[in-house]
Task: structure prediction
Amino acid sequence: MKKFIFSSAIAVLILMFCDQNIYAQSDKPYSDGPLWQVQFIRTKPGMSDLYLKNLSDGWVKEMKAAKDAGYIMDYKIFEAQPASENDWDLMLMYEIKNFAMMDGMSDKMEALMKKDGSNDQTLHTQAVSRNDLRILQGGRLTRELDFK
Result:
């Protein structure tokens, strides 16, 4: 009898704990959405058009290929007037479904570029060229919130 009462008490506690977790999760007015990898760029004076051409020839093609392969969901480039001398003027973003999609992402992207005909020397030359045109001001991995 003691075993039955003890087992029943444990079962009730477990149900109460599970019940609280369910209510706690449903109280949020939003759900976790996809991730966005964001980079902030400051183009050097007079280099905006050259940098945008460089993006079109490299980054945009890479993002299109990644989207077609299902590695990313979408990508965007935003342009803005800098608010200060040290502010960004371009924001590059790509959308990833979840953290699991980030596993092995650099290997997947490298394979895509090699499939496209790019080799290590070409990729290095493009990276050096981009650095002559811009200042990378950092980036962030952000999560989109989907409100109910």
In short: The chain is about 50% helix and 30% strand. Residues 2-26 form the longest helix (25 residues). The CA atoms of residues 65 and 112 lie 7 Å apart.
